[in-house]
Amino acid sequence: MKPKSQAWRLVIALILVACQVLATPSSAAAFTMDPYDYFDIDYCVSLSDSEVQDDEVFYLLFEGYVKCIKDLPFGIDRADVTISIIAQHRETGAREILNIAYSVTIIPFPDWEGESYEFEECLNLVFPDESQPGEYNVIGQLIQAKVDGWDITGLIAECYKCFSLGTIAYVTSAGETMPPATPSFTISNMSINPGQVEVGETVTISVEVRNVGGTEDSYTLNLMVNGLFQDSRQIILAPQESKIVIYKVSKSEEGSYEVILDGQSGVFTVVSVSPSASALLSWLSRHWLLIAIVIFFLTFIL
Fold this sequence. Notes:
Blueprint: H1 7-23, H2 35-38, E1 39-47, E2 51-53, E3 58-68, E4 79-89, E5 95-106, E6 116-125, E7 134-147, E8 150-151, E9 162-171, E10 185-193, E11 196-198, E12 202-211, E13 217-225, E14 228-237, E15 242-250, E16 255-261, E17 264-271, H3 275-286, H4 288-301
Parallel strand pairs: 2-9, 11-17
Antiparallel strand pairs: 1-3, 3-6, 4-5, 4-7, 7-8, 7-9, 10-12, 12-15, 13-14, 13-16, 16-17
């Protein structure tokens, strides 16, 4: 087996994290599980080339073997993990999407001692037109994780959602920087509302896209949050037509999040539920019957 990558360990780790979150009352305990306590894992993720040119296709190779050496807390029939494959320029930081949504399915999942699973897959990749020449880091970013159909993406910490897959050089056929294309779309009027939310609440991000060219054309709008790819939309507009594009985003961790939409940028903040509000909700949930009796008395007796 070739030198190991962290990618397939991450796939197994994500599923183990979700299992323990669902099996125990404390989400903090979920992240103490080590995949190697439950699995014998031998795998690699590698790129087929160290350098590619123009529209040349290259490959991301997945292969490996997983054997369960200890029963999981409870049984799993199927696990699905969807990632996007992104190339990030090592000098400029520019990002190119090589595959917007690649899904890995493990079925049947080896959840009992002695069960095993083998995998060997090959994913075709190509740099988009007009990508900047140079050295790129190839990154996998988690989009969605499911266990038996249950979406457990929100249970996974942000630090687990991005991992390295290798490096590659991209050059043009002449070895020269490609001239920038004349822009036919403008992006403006980005709005982030509200600017501050509590953990798990939704932030609405909108932006106006306008076709300033002379022909109908399409445009791909990529949403980045804290430097990581979040979502992508393809818009087709007639000449001089404009459209408001709306994204919905929620985060499971406190902090400040920078939003970038093709040159437009902004920030929103996620905070924890205030102790007073949390205590009030807890008190109301425990004394709902008493509250109902008081309301009935005030409404119909007095």
